[in-house]
Design goal:
The structure is a homotetramer. In chain A, helix 4 runs parallel beside helix 5. The radius of gyration of chain A is 18 Å and the shape is globular. Chain A contains nine helices and nine strands. Chain A has a single domain, classed as NAD(P)-binding Rossmann-like Domain (Rossmann fold), CATH 3.40.50.720. Chain A has a seven-stranded parallel β-sheet, sandwiched between helices. Chain A is of the alpha/beta class and about 280 residues long. Chains A and B meet through helix 5 and helix 6 of A and helix 5 and helix 6 of B. Chains A, B, C, D: Belongs to the short-chain dehydrogenases/reductases (SDR) family. Chains A, B, C, D: This is Dehydrogenase/reductase SDR family member 4 isoform X1. Chains A, B, C, D: Keywords: NADP, Oxidoreductase. Chains A, B, C, D: InterPro entries: NAD(P)-bd_dom_sf (IPR036291), Sc_DH/Rdtase_CS (IPR020904), SDR_fam (IPR002347).
Chain lengths: ~280, ~280, ~280, ~280
């Protein structure tokens, strides 16, 4: 699998500089030569992001908790001719985080991009019914592990002279999803984590931004649109006409990781179809 | 000690309706007959809040982790003629949270007000240097325990037909304090927790608001103003002329718990002397 | 009319220090001796604010565009034993603004508090249907006149060593009301005006804060709740259980003008019953 | 492969669908065939945006108030092989706005994109020193004219089945620039205008987003960085390491107008190098 990826790497590099005679501009794959880690990327929004980063020229390491999901995602993306490898990673485990980093470095020589997408929601119901265990799990995975994963990746980015981190939060950080209280709170924390990391990492030439997807049609959000009545009610509550697609969250992540976003850091971009969020 | 509090209770009730002949208005102690729990209230902002709630007519249960601090605070406030009792409470421990609630109910027959002020910051330095243990401790105490304490108190508030919760966050929720990364992130989470709780508890007639103190002169914030040079630099960075006093955070908390704030819920009020925060 | 106000002034001062035997505390009318201007205060939220400031001890000058409305409001408030006088003022006219200030100074010797509540909404419909004239009128009255009124009042506040300004915006500053586009935009501008004034006036010891009422039952907002169906629909859209009352906006204004808010400036407080607004 | 690129370069339209053999993906100029109006685009940020939209495949109509500036900008961009035309337009004048629209439609058959960048700041100093005339001018040009220009353009976008608007505000919308009070306030209003328009125009398939540049090196912002001492002081106040370049604001605008941003509307993206703004 990796061999295919490596072979493709050579091909992809070759189209990185398509010169346009008429304008004197070089039109490059915006993430050419970049190495990107994307967690929780074998499905839904993470998968769409991984695919897009690879389409834009990056070598992408996809990961999630189950080997078979990783295998399926890698096969699918390689089947599209993309430079993708995979590794099992439970971001809540320190040794997994380390392994993710070392594998990426071994395969591709370094890390330029991290998309931290891993999140759990072991709970659906009233916020006040959430137990201590629920809070522990959600804060552990959604907040602490995100911070620690950045910590693990930064030294590698520094070796490359800089890098780009995108943390995936949610529009629920601003405007709570019903029945997902602790999840919502963890996402608000990520907006703060983004600001804090951006300030601290600016001097190392590492940008940190945040994607806040609105209501996107994925397995994760199924509980919010599982039947037509609920879908209609949530669309009305969120003042949106349609539920978004995972692909619609991917372009902005690639953009934020590209040279074009060189002066954007600490920002959260909501991809929510106009649902209420923040000024 | 409790006896004094109970005796005073009678006296306090007696001034609750001081009729003003000149204007025909009744001027009441705004929190008369209310029972208030304030965590981390033996020092600094929490102490100032406890005192103010008591001055405004509430029976206040102060608490913090050490018996001697509780004793000192209770003695000081009772010495001012206030209706105050105390109990040791480490909000991170479920049995302590339960005990806080049952004690308050036993003493005063119920709970109307909760001010959740407990917070730790076991870390000063770069965000990326924060260990897993640091994150665990900060998220546990500052976020999870706040949520679980509200959970423990709500049934008592319901019995009284409603109540008022104030969660103490920080201006750092919006505009990070330097070198306090994980603390800042936990405070951003609390702004989100406030919104989520407010929505969920509205139907039970419980309001949930948030106080976000700016740079206030307390032992907790000492690291930010410990010498004159640092104080000057942080005042300039925060665009403020002077550091605030704990008392300046207390009035708004009492206000938010009073009948005057009957239509205010889900709000965070920054008490920051004009430092940058949010629109 | 003014004579009554002046006479009452003496009486009111007499209840400013009601000593509470039981607690040893002095309980003062929080705005005793303060002189307050409130624009657009003969009805709705402005009227409720004027009444409350007077109840809290201030001498209040009410104003609006029509003499008969001013007379009615003054009569009503004086009938309650409050220290209130009135003057016709169209805040869009420079000479009216000047006259408001000079009259207040002549009557009461100075100005301590300004509540800028005047606003128009000469338009109900699609934002894109708003004409140049509509925009002119709304920006003129709601934004420019507010700034110029503060400008006219500040020199008087400086003579008193400081003061307090409260600008009345709307929750629509954050979360647009349907069919009130230009009005909504003008209210967002006021949130910005508040921040800017707060920073600039801090050195003169003048605080500037902002009240953002949610859906409050007034003639002004009638269009939003005029029939039961519309009221239900807007309550659902705003996730609130009930529409607020003007009185529920008044306490926070008095609070923000009191000594208790000495470290609060540049802040916008939403009084919205939990409707979506800002983090 | 590069040879193919060079051949294709000869006609920009022809490279809109460059099939990449290696990956099977089609790589298009993201704004191919789109017609874009950019106001105030003969210099600074507007010029950089106009160039970028043209580089990304759009036919761009640049404009500003002076013929010679328009001529110079058009010559420069055409000299780079870009599809650019120009027209004099003072956005404060209704007939100019109309002419801008009709010219663009005559030249290119319709309008898909509007970037509203025109702004004035006829004032540098204390907010309270701003006269009625200053406020009139700033609100007229920066807010009202932006709204009316969108109004003029929307019918043309509807004919094309949709479109994309980007309003240029400023980081000062959130975090005021010193000595630019009325300008700052007008920019806050634009963030609100963006939200309002986004909600209203969603049903017509028109997205409305907002760019909020931070401290960017342009003639406009010269007053903020004119000497080294001031530059250093403002960099420290804004917690940024370097001042941005106009080009760094251009990529995000192109992105927001592209198909990649299909689910992003009502959003403000700060391009501020990490300076304090909003959560």
């Amino acid at each position: 699998m990796q061999k295919v990826g490596l072979l493709l790497g050579g091909c992809i590099r070759s189209w990185k500089l398509v010169r346009m005679a008429s304008s004197g501009m070089a039109r490059r794959a915006p993430l050419a030569n970049k190495v990107a880690l994307v967690t929780a990327s074998t499905d839904g929004i993470g998968f769409a992001i991984a695919r897009r980063l690879a389409q834009d020229g990056a070598h992408v390491v996809v990961s999630s908790r189950k080997q078979q999901n990783v295998d399926r995602a890698v096969a699918a993306l390689q089947g599209e001719g993309l430079s993708v490898t995979g590794i099992v990673c439970h971001v809540g485990k320190a040794e997994h985080r380390e392994q993710l980093v070392t594998t990426a470095v071994k395969l591709h020589g370094g890390i330029d991009i991290l998309v931290s997408n891993a999140a759990v929601n072991p709970f659906f119901g009233n916020l006040l019914d959430a137990t201590e265990e629920v809070w522990d799990k959600i804060l552990d995975i959604n907040v602490k592990s995100a911070a620690l994963l950045v910590k693990a990746v930064v030294p590698e980015m520094e070796k490359r002279g800089g890098g780009s981190v995108v943390i995936v939060a949610s529009i629920a950080a601003y405007s709570p999803f019903p029945a997902l209280g602790p999840y919502n709170v963890s996402k608000t924390a990520l907006v703060g984590l983004t600001k804090n990391l951006a300030i601290e990492l600016a001097q190392r030439n590492i940008k940190v931004n945040c994607l806040a997807p609105g209501l996107i049609k994925t397995n994760f959000s199924k509980v919010l649109w599982m039947d037509e009545a609920r879908e209609e009610s949530i669309k009305e509550a969120m003042r949106i006409r349609r539920i978004g697609k995972p692909e619609e969250c991917a372009g902005i992540v690639s953009f934020l990781c590209s040279e074009d976003a060189s002066y954007i850091t600490g920002e959260t971009v909501v991809v929510g179809g106009g649902a209420p969020s923040h000024l």
